[in-house]
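Q: My collaborator sent me two sequences in one message, no labels, and asked for predicted structures for both. Can we handle them in order? The first one she listed is below.
A: Yes, handling them in the order given. First sequence, followed by its C-alpha coordinates:
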Amino acid sequence: MEFNEIVVTWIYPILIKEGFQIIENRKNYLHFKSDNVGITISRNQMENSNMIQFSLGEKTYYSLDEKAVKYLFDKEIKIDAVSPKDFISNLTLFLQGYGRSLLAGDKTFFDKFKDFVHKNNKEYTDHLTKSQILNEADKAWNKKNYSDFIKFINFLDKESLSRYS
Protein backbone atom coordinates (compact mmCIF):
# COMPACT_ATOMS: atom_id res chain seq x y z
CA MET A 1 0.00 0.00 0.00
CA GLU A 2 1.35 3.43 -0.91
CA PHE A 3 1.70 6.28 1.58
CA ASN A 4 -1.40 8.19 0.42
CA GLU A 5 -3.53 5.06 0.54
CA ILE A 6 -2.41 4.38 4.12
CA VAL A 7 -3.22 7.97 5.14
CA VAL A 8 -6.65 7.88 3.50
CA THR A 9 -7.43 4.48 5.03
CA TRP A 10 -6.32 5.20 8.60
CA ILE A 11 -6.22 8.98 9.16
CA TYR A 12 -8.93 10.37 6.91
CA PRO A 13 -11.83 8.66 8.76
CA ILE A 14 -10.70 10.44 11.96
CA LEU A 15 -10.49 13.75 10.11
CA ILE A 16 -13.92 13.35 8.48
CA LYS A 17 -15.48 13.12 11.95
CA GLU A 18 -13.86 16.48 12.77
CA GLY A 19 -15.17 18.14 9.57
CA PHE A 20 -12.06 17.86 7.38
CA GLN A 21 -11.97 17.36 3.63
CA ILE A 22 -9.12 16.44 1.32
CA ILE A 23 -8.02 19.61 -0.47
CA GLU A 24 -4.95 18.25 -2.26
CA ASN A 25 -3.77 14.71 -2.90
CA ARG A 26 -0.51 14.07 -4.72
CA LYS A 27 2.22 11.47 -4.32
CA ASN A 28 3.39 11.39 -0.66
CA TYR A 29 1.48 14.57 0.16
CA LEU A 30 -2.05 15.18 1.42
CA HIS A 31 -3.62 18.47 2.46
CA PHE A 32 -6.77 18.50 4.60
CA LYS A 33 -8.90 21.43 5.70
CA SER A 34 -11.78 22.01 8.09
CA ASP A 35 -13.53 25.33 8.70
CA ASN A 36 -10.57 26.68 10.68
CA VAL A 37 -7.73 24.12 10.70
CA GLY A 38 -5.41 23.01 7.91
CA ILE A 39 -3.29 19.86 8.04
CA THR A 40 -0.64 18.53 5.70
CA ILE A 41 0.72 15.02 6.01
CA SER A 42 3.71 14.15 3.87
CA ARG A 43 6.62 11.79 3.39
CA ASN A 44 10.06 12.53 1.97
CA GLN A 45 11.31 9.22 0.61
CA MET A 46 14.82 10.50 -0.10
CA GLU A 47 15.30 11.52 3.54
CA ASN A 48 13.16 8.67 4.87
CA SER A 49 11.21 11.21 6.94
CA ASN A 50 7.59 12.03 7.66
CA MET A 51 5.91 15.32 8.45
CA ILE A 52 2.63 16.57 9.79
CA GLN A 53 1.88 20.29 9.87
CA PHE A 54 -1.01 22.26 11.33
CA SER A 55 -2.41 25.71 10.66
CA LEU A 56 -5.14 27.62 12.44
CA GLY A 57 -6.89 29.89 9.95
CA GLU A 58 -3.68 31.29 8.49
CA LYS A 59 -1.22 30.56 5.73
CA THR A 60 1.59 29.55 8.09
CA TYR A 61 1.82 25.85 8.88
CA TYR A 62 3.69 24.58 11.94
CA SER A 63 5.45 21.22 11.96
CA LEU A 64 4.62 18.83 14.74
CA ASP A 65 7.65 16.67 15.47
CA GLU A 66 8.59 14.39 18.36
CA LYS A 67 10.11 17.28 20.32
CA ALA A 68 6.93 19.36 19.96
CA VAL A 69 4.75 16.44 21.06
CA LYS A 70 6.93 15.97 24.15
CA TYR A 71 6.73 19.68 25.00
CA LEU A 72 3.01 20.17 24.28
CA PHE A 73 1.60 16.89 25.57
CA ASP A 74 4.39 15.45 27.72
CA LYS A 75 4.09 12.28 25.62
CA GLU A 76 6.57 10.27 23.58
CA ILE A 77 5.55 9.40 20.03
CA LYS A 78 7.70 8.23 17.14
CA ILE A 79 6.73 10.13 14.00
CA ASP A 80 9.88 11.62 12.50
CA ALA A 81 12.16 8.98 10.98
CA VAL A 82 10.03 5.83 11.06
CA SER A 83 8.45 3.71 8.37
CA PRO A 84 5.30 5.09 6.73
CA LYS A 85 3.25 2.35 8.39
CA ASP A 86 4.61 3.17 11.87
CA PHE A 87 4.18 6.90 11.25
CA ILE A 88 0.53 6.49 10.31
CA SER A 89 -0.13 4.02 13.13
CA ASN A 90 1.37 6.37 15.73
CA LEU A 91 -0.32 9.39 14.17
CA THR A 92 -3.68 7.60 14.24
CA LEU A 93 -3.37 6.95 17.98
CA PHE A 94 -2.21 10.54 18.54
CA LEU A 95 -5.13 12.11 16.62
CA GLN A 96 -7.68 9.86 18.34
CA GLY A 97 -6.31 10.80 21.75
CA TYR A 98 -4.44 13.81 23.05
CA GLY A 99 -3.95 15.33 19.59
CA ARG A 100 -7.64 16.15 19.27
CA SER A 101 -7.06 19.68 20.56
CA LEU A 102 -5.16 20.38 17.34
CA LEU A 103 -7.99 19.01 15.21
CA ALA A 104 -10.54 21.06 17.16
CA GLY A 105 -8.59 24.26 16.53
CA ASP A 106 -8.20 25.21 20.20
CA LYS A 107 -6.74 28.74 19.87
CA THR A 108 -5.03 28.74 23.27
CA PHE A 109 -3.37 25.45 22.43
CA PHE A 110 -2.35 26.66 18.95
CA ASP A 111 -0.79 29.77 20.49
CA LYS A 112 1.29 27.55 22.78
CA PHE A 113 2.24 25.42 19.76
CA LYS A 114 3.26 28.47 17.68
CA ASP A 115 5.29 29.89 20.59
CA PHE A 116 7.12 26.58 20.93
CA VAL A 117 7.91 26.42 17.21
CA HIS A 118 9.16 30.03 17.15
CA LYS A 119 11.28 29.48 20.26
CA ASN A 120 12.70 26.25 18.84
CA ASN A 121 13.47 27.93 15.49
CA LYS A 122 15.19 30.83 17.27
CA GLU A 123 17.33 28.44 19.34
CA TYR A 124 18.31 26.55 16.19
CA THR A 125 19.17 29.76 14.33
CA ASP A 126 21.14 31.12 17.29
CA HIS A 127 23.12 27.88 17.54
CA LEU A 128 23.84 27.90 13.81
CA THR A 129 24.95 31.54 13.93
CA LYS A 130 27.26 30.88 16.90
CA SER A 131 28.78 27.88 15.10
CA GLN A 132 29.45 29.97 12.01
CA ILE A 133 31.06 32.75 14.05
CA LEU A 134 33.21 30.24 15.96
CA ASN A 135 34.32 28.67 12.67
CA GLU A 136 35.32 32.08 11.33
CA ALA A 137 37.15 32.85 14.59
CA ASP A 138 39.01 29.53 14.26
CA LYS A 139 40.04 30.39 10.71
CA ALA A 140 41.26 33.82 11.77
CA TRP A 141 43.23 32.29 14.69
CA ASN A 142 44.84 29.68 12.44
CA LYS A 143 45.88 32.41 10.02
CA LYS A 144 47.29 34.39 12.98
CA ASN A 145 44.87 37.19 12.13
CA TYR A 146 44.23 38.11 15.76
CA SER A 147 42.39 41.36 15.09
CA ASP A 148 39.71 39.50 13.07
CA PHE A 149 39.69 36.77 15.72
CA ILE A 150 38.83 39.37 18.39
CA LYS A 151 36.12 40.91 16.17
CA PHE A 152 34.44 37.49 15.81
CA ILE A 153 34.80 36.66 19.48
CA ASN A 154 33.18 39.95 20.49
CA PHE A 155 29.97 38.76 18.78
CA LEU A 156 29.68 35.81 21.17
CA ASP A 157 28.68 35.33 24.77
CA LYS A 158 31.17 33.90 27.26
CA GLU A 159 29.60 30.39 27.32
CA SER A 160 30.38 30.03 23.61
CA LEU A 161 34.07 30.60 24.27
CA SER A 162 34.69 27.49 26.40
CA ARG A 163 36.64 25.82 23.58
CA TYR A 164 39.25 28.62 23.79
CA SER A 165 39.97 28.30 27.51
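Q: And the one she listed second?
A: Here it is, processed independently of the first:
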Amino acid sequence: MAKLSLNQAYEYARECHRRGALDEAVGVARQILSIDSKHWEALGLMGSIAGQRGRDEIALKHFKTAVKIQPGSPVIQLNLGEAYRRLGQTKAAISAFKRAISLQPQNDRAHNNLGVAFREMNDLKSATKHFRMAVERAPSNIDNQANLANALLEDGVSEEACTLFGRLALLAPSNAEIRLKHGTALLSQGDRAAAKVALLESIQLDPGLSRGHDMLASIIQQEGNVELAIRHYQTAINLDPAFARAHSNLGNAYITCGLLDDAVSCFVRALELDPSLALTHDLLLYWLNYSSKV
Protein backbone atom coordinates (compact mmCIF):
# COMPACT_ATOMS: atom_id res chain seq x y z
CA MET A 1 0.00 0.00 0.00
CA ALA A 2 2.84 2.38 0.85
CA LYS A 3 4.06 2.28 -2.74
CA LEU A 4 0.63 2.69 -4.31
CA SER A 5 -1.56 5.72 -4.70
CA LEU A 6 -5.12 5.37 -3.38
CA ASN A 7 -6.44 5.02 -6.92
CA GLN A 8 -3.89 2.31 -7.67
CA ALA A 9 -4.78 0.54 -4.44
CA TYR A 10 -8.46 0.72 -5.33
CA GLU A 11 -7.80 -0.78 -8.76
CA TYR A 12 -5.85 -3.57 -7.08
CA ALA A 13 -8.79 -4.20 -4.72
CA ARG A 14 -11.13 -4.37 -7.70
CA GLU A 15 -8.83 -6.89 -9.38
CA CYS A 16 -8.85 -9.00 -6.20
CA HIS A 17 -12.65 -8.82 -6.24
CA ARG A 18 -12.83 -9.88 -9.90
CA ARG A 19 -10.70 -12.98 -9.30
CA GLY A 20 -12.64 -13.96 -6.17
CA ALA A 21 -10.04 -13.00 -3.56
CA LEU A 22 -12.70 -11.32 -1.42
CA ASP A 23 -10.79 -11.23 1.87
CA GLU A 24 -7.84 -9.58 0.18
CA ALA A 25 -10.12 -7.08 -1.57
CA VAL A 26 -11.78 -6.18 1.74
CA GLY A 27 -8.39 -5.81 3.41
CA VAL A 28 -7.16 -3.39 0.75
CA ALA A 29 -10.44 -1.44 0.80
CA ARG A 30 -10.19 -1.07 4.58
CA GLN A 31 -6.65 0.26 4.27
CA ILE A 32 -7.85 2.79 1.71
CA LEU A 33 -10.65 3.92 4.03
CA SER A 34 -8.24 4.20 6.95
CA ILE A 35 -6.40 6.82 4.89
CA ASP A 36 -9.44 8.41 3.22
CA SER A 37 -12.72 7.68 5.01
CA LYS A 38 -14.64 9.36 2.15
CA HIS A 39 -13.33 7.14 -0.60
CA TRP A 40 -16.80 6.28 -1.90
CA GLU A 41 -15.60 3.73 -4.43
CA ALA A 42 -13.90 1.69 -1.70
CA LEU A 43 -17.10 1.92 0.34
CA GLY A 44 -19.04 0.71 -2.69
CA LEU A 45 -16.68 -2.22 -3.10
CA MET A 46 -17.09 -3.13 0.55
CA GLY A 47 -20.86 -3.01 0.05
CA SER A 48 -20.73 -5.23 -3.02
CA ILE A 49 -18.63 -7.85 -1.23
CA ALA A 50 -20.90 -7.77 1.82
CA GLY A 51 -23.87 -8.33 -0.50
CA GLN A 52 -22.11 -11.29 -2.16
CA ARG A 53 -21.65 -12.79 1.27
CA GLY A 54 -25.31 -12.35 2.16
CA ARG A 55 -24.64 -9.59 4.68
CA ASP A 56 -27.24 -7.24 3.27
CA GLU A 57 -27.57 -4.98 6.31
CA ILE A 58 -23.84 -4.30 6.19
CA ALA A 59 -23.98 -3.81 2.42
CA LEU A 60 -26.80 -1.28 2.82
CA LYS A 61 -24.82 0.63 5.43
CA HIS A 62 -21.80 0.92 3.10
CA PHE A 63 -23.90 1.97 0.10
CA LYS A 64 -25.81 4.58 2.10
CA THR A 65 -22.53 6.08 3.28
CA ALA A 66 -21.15 6.06 -0.27
CA VAL A 67 -24.30 7.76 -1.63
CA LYS A 68 -24.00 10.56 0.92
CA ILE A 69 -20.46 11.20 -0.31
CA GLN A 70 -21.18 10.76 -4.03
CA PRO A 71 -24.92 11.04 -4.77
CA GLY A 72 -24.21 11.50 -8.47
CA SER A 73 -22.97 7.95 -9.05
CA PRO A 74 -25.57 5.84 -10.88
CA VAL A 75 -23.68 2.67 -9.94
CA ILE A 76 -23.87 3.40 -6.23
CA GLN A 77 -27.54 4.35 -6.51
CA LEU A 78 -28.18 1.09 -8.35
CA ASN A 79 -26.30 -0.97 -5.76
CA LEU A 80 -28.14 0.84 -2.98
CA GLY A 81 -31.45 -0.08 -4.62
CA GLU A 82 -30.43 -3.73 -4.90
CA ALA A 83 -29.50 -3.82 -1.21
CA TYR A 84 -32.84 -2.28 -0.26
CA ARG A 85 -34.70 -4.79 -2.45
CA ARG A 86 -32.89 -7.80 -0.99
CA LEU A 87 -33.93 -6.59 2.46
CA GLY A 88 -37.56 -6.32 1.37
CA GLN A 89 -37.58 -2.52 1.39
CA THR A 90 -39.06 -2.34 -2.09
CA LYS A 91 -40.31 1.26 -2.03
CA ALA A 92 -36.85 2.52 -1.01
CA ALA A 93 -35.36 0.33 -3.74
CA ILE A 94 -37.67 1.87 -6.35
CA SER A 95 -36.59 5.37 -5.32
CA ALA A 96 -32.92 4.43 -5.63
CA PHE A 97 -33.40 2.79 -9.04
CA LYS A 98 -35.26 5.88 -10.27
CA ARG A 99 -32.34 8.07 -9.14
CA ALA A 100 -29.94 5.76 -10.99
CA ILE A 101 -32.03 6.12 -14.17
CA SER A 102 -32.22 9.90 -13.82
CA LEU A 103 -28.42 9.94 -13.68
CA GLN A 104 -27.95 7.40 -16.49
CA PRO A 105 -31.13 6.93 -18.58
CA GLN A 106 -29.51 4.36 -20.87
CA ASN A 107 -28.59 1.99 -18.04
CA ASP A 108 -30.45 -1.22 -18.91
CA ARG A 109 -29.64 -2.81 -15.55
CA ALA A 110 -31.31 0.06 -13.69
CA HIS A 111 -34.47 -0.25 -15.81
CA ASN A 112 -34.47 -4.03 -15.39
CA ASN A 113 -34.06 -3.84 -11.62
CA LEU A 114 -36.75 -1.17 -11.38
CA GLY A 115 -39.01 -3.51 -13.34
CA VAL A 116 -38.24 -6.33 -10.89
CA ALA A 117 -39.12 -4.07 -7.96
CA PHE A 118 -42.40 -2.99 -9.56
CA ARG A 119 -43.22 -6.64 -10.26
CA GLU A 120 -42.67 -7.44 -6.59
CA MET A 121 -45.17 -4.66 -5.82
CA ASN A 122 -47.63 -6.32 -8.27
CA ASP A 123 -47.48 -3.24 -10.50
CA LEU A 124 -47.18 -5.23 -13.71
CA LYS A 125 -47.84 -2.27 -16.04
CA SER A 126 -44.90 -0.30 -14.62
CA ALA A 127 -42.77 -3.45 -14.53
CA THR A 128 -43.48 -4.17 -18.20
CA LYS A 129 -42.69 -0.56 -19.14
CA HIS A 130 -39.22 -0.72 -17.58
CA PHE A 131 -38.46 -4.23 -18.79
CA ARG A 132 -39.20 -2.96 -22.31
CA MET A 133 -36.80 -0.08 -21.75
CA ALA A 134 -34.16 -2.51 -20.53
CA VAL A 135 -34.61 -4.66 -23.65
CA GLU A 136 -34.45 -1.58 -25.91
CA ARG A 137 -31.13 -0.59 -24.31
CA ALA A 138 -29.62 -4.09 -24.31
CA PRO A 139 -31.44 -6.22 -26.92
CA SER A 140 -29.06 -9.17 -26.54
CA ASN A 141 -29.51 -9.50 -22.77
CA ILE A 142 -31.50 -12.70 -22.23
CA ASP A 143 -32.37 -11.91 -18.60
CA ASN A 144 -33.99 -8.62 -19.61
CA GLN A 145 -36.03 -10.38 -22.30
CA ALA A 146 -37.07 -13.16 -19.91
CA ASN A 147 -38.22 -10.64 -17.31
CA LEU A 148 -40.29 -8.84 -19.92
CA ALA A 149 -41.85 -12.09 -21.11
CA ASN A 150 -42.67 -13.16 -17.53
CA ALA A 151 -44.32 -9.82 -16.73
CA LEU A 152 -46.37 -9.96 -19.92
CA LEU A 153 -47.49 -13.51 -19.13
CA GLU A 154 -48.49 -12.55 -15.58
CA ASP A 155 -50.35 -9.52 -16.92
CA GLY A 156 -52.36 -11.68 -19.33
CA VAL A 157 -50.58 -10.50 -22.49
CA SER A 158 -50.00 -14.12 -23.43
CA GLU A 159 -49.59 -13.78 -27.19
CA GLU A 160 -46.59 -11.43 -26.98
CA ALA A 161 -45.21 -13.43 -24.05
CA CYS A 162 -45.49 -16.60 -26.12
CA THR A 163 -43.57 -15.00 -28.98
CA LEU A 164 -40.83 -13.79 -26.64
CA PHE A 165 -40.44 -17.14 -24.88
CA GLY A 166 -40.30 -18.88 -28.26
CA ARG A 167 -37.47 -16.56 -29.30
CA LEU A 168 -35.70 -17.07 -25.97
CA ALA A 169 -35.96 -20.85 -26.34
CA LEU A 170 -33.93 -20.54 -29.54
CA LEU A 171 -31.40 -18.19 -27.92
CA ALA A 172 -31.01 -20.35 -24.82
CA PRO A 173 -31.82 -23.93 -25.92
CA SER A 174 -30.52 -25.49 -22.69
CA ASN A 175 -32.58 -23.29 -20.36
CA ALA A 176 -35.31 -25.49 -18.85
CA GLU A 177 -37.08 -22.62 -17.10
CA ILE A 178 -37.57 -20.77 -20.39
CA ARG A 179 -39.03 -23.94 -21.98
CA LEU A 180 -41.38 -24.25 -19.01
CA LYS A 181 -42.56 -20.65 -19.36
CA HIS A 182 -42.94 -21.09 -23.12
CA GLY A 183 -45.15 -24.10 -22.44
CA THR A 184 -47.18 -22.05 -19.94
CA ALA A 185 -47.67 -19.27 -22.49
CA LEU A 186 -48.62 -21.73 -25.24
CA LEU A 187 -51.14 -23.37 -22.93
CA SER A 188 -52.69 -19.99 -22.12
CA GLN A 189 -53.06 -19.50 -25.88
CA GLY A 190 -54.91 -22.81 -26.13
CA ASP A 191 -52.16 -24.59 -28.06
CA ARG A 192 -52.08 -27.72 -25.94
CA ALA A 193 -50.02 -29.81 -28.39
CA ALA A 194 -47.21 -27.25 -28.65
CA ALA A 195 -47.36 -26.66 -24.89
CA LYS A 196 -46.90 -30.39 -24.30
CA VAL A 197 -43.78 -30.42 -26.50
CA ALA A 198 -42.29 -27.44 -24.66
CA LEU A 199 -43.04 -28.95 -21.24
CA LEU A 200 -41.55 -32.31 -22.24
CA GLU A 201 -38.41 -30.46 -23.37
CA SER A 202 -38.29 -28.59 -20.04
CA ILE A 203 -38.24 -31.77 -17.94
CA GLN A 204 -35.81 -33.44 -20.34
CA LEU A 205 -33.44 -30.53 -19.74
CA ASP A 206 -34.14 -30.53 -16.00
CA PRO A 207 -35.85 -33.68 -14.65
CA GLY A 208 -36.06 -31.98 -11.26
CA LEU A 209 -38.44 -29.27 -12.49
CA SER A 210 -41.51 -30.06 -10.40
CA ARG A 211 -43.74 -27.45 -12.08
CA GLY A 212 -42.93 -28.97 -15.46
CA HIS A 213 -44.12 -32.40 -14.32
CA ASP A 214 -47.29 -30.91 -12.82
CA MET A 215 -48.25 -28.91 -15.92
CA LEU A 216 -47.39 -31.78 -18.25
CA ALA A 217 -49.53 -34.11 -16.13
CA SER A 218 -52.53 -31.81 -16.47
CA ILE A 219 -52.27 -31.96 -20.27
CA ILE A 220 -51.79 -35.73 -20.28
CA GLN A 221 -54.81 -36.11 -17.99
CA GLN A 222 -56.93 -34.05 -20.38
CA GLU A 223 -55.80 -36.41 -23.15
CA GLY A 224 -57.22 -39.31 -21.15
CA ASN A 225 -54.01 -40.98 -19.99
CA VAL A 226 -54.76 -40.67 -16.28
CA GLU A 227 -52.28 -43.35 -15.18
CA LEU A 228 -49.35 -41.49 -16.78
CA ALA A 229 -50.67 -38.17 -15.44
CA ILE A 230 -50.70 -39.61 -11.92
CA ARG A 231 -47.05 -40.66 -12.28
CA HIS A 232 -46.07 -37.13 -13.26
CA TYR A 233 -48.09 -35.59 -10.40
CA GLN A 234 -46.38 -38.00 -8.00
CA THR A 235 -42.99 -37.06 -9.44
CA ALA A 236 -43.79 -33.37 -8.93
CA ILE A 237 -44.69 -34.05 -5.29
CA ASN A 238 -41.60 -36.21 -4.70
CA LEU A 239 -39.47 -33.37 -6.04
CA ASP A 240 -41.33 -30.73 -4.02
CA PRO A 241 -43.42 -32.20 -1.15
CA ALA A 242 -44.74 -28.69 -0.33
CA PHE A 243 -46.19 -28.21 -3.83
CA ALA A 244 -49.85 -27.70 -2.84
CA ARG A 245 -51.23 -27.46 -6.37
CA ALA A 246 -49.67 -30.80 -7.34
CA HIS A 247 -51.33 -32.49 -4.35
CA SER A 248 -54.67 -31.00 -5.41
CA ASN A 249 -54.20 -32.02 -9.04
CA LEU A 250 -53.26 -35.54 -7.99
CA GLY A 251 -56.46 -35.66 -5.98
CA ASN A 252 -58.46 -34.75 -9.09
CA ALA A 253 -56.73 -37.52 -11.02
CA TYR A 254 -57.52 -40.04 -8.27
CA ILE A 255 -61.21 -39.06 -8.48
CA THR A 256 -61.13 -39.90 -12.20
CA CYS A 257 -59.90 -43.38 -11.24
CA GLY A 258 -62.53 -43.76 -8.53
CA LEU A 259 -59.93 -43.65 -5.72
CA LEU A 260 -61.96 -41.42 -3.43
CA ASP A 261 -60.04 -41.99 -0.18
CA ASP A 262 -56.74 -41.22 -1.90
CA ALA A 263 -58.26 -38.11 -3.46
CA VAL A 264 -59.53 -36.82 -0.13
CA SER A 265 -56.10 -37.35 1.42
CA CYS A 266 -54.53 -35.31 -1.38
CA PHE A 267 -57.05 -32.49 -0.98
CA VAL A 268 -56.48 -32.38 2.79
CA ARG A 269 -52.71 -32.20 2.28
CA ALA A 270 -53.07 -29.49 -0.36
CA LEU A 271 -55.13 -27.33 2.00
CA GLU A 272 -52.68 -27.91 4.85
CA LEU A 273 -49.97 -26.50 2.59
CA ASP A 274 -52.06 -23.70 1.08
CA PRO A 275 -55.40 -22.89 2.77
CA SER A 276 -56.16 -20.32 0.04
CA LEU A 277 -56.93 -23.04 -2.54
CA ALA A 278 -60.65 -22.33 -2.72
CA LEU A 279 -61.43 -24.86 -5.46
CA THR A 280 -59.64 -27.60 -3.56
CA HIS A 281 -61.64 -26.71 -0.46
CA ASP A 282 -64.89 -26.99 -2.43
CA LEU A 283 -63.85 -30.33 -3.92
CA LEU A 284 -62.94 -31.71 -0.52
CA LEU A 285 -66.31 -30.73 0.95
CA TYR A 286 -68.15 -32.17 -2.05
CA TRP A 287 -66.41 -35.55 -1.90
CA LEU A 288 -66.64 -35.81 1.87
CA ASN A 289 -70.35 -35.15 1.58
CA TYR A 290 -70.62 -37.65 -1.27
CA SER A 291 -68.76 -40.36 0.64
CA SER A 292 -71.02 -39.91 3.66
CA LYS A 293 -74.01 -40.78 1.46
CA VAL A 294 -72.48 -43.80 -0.23
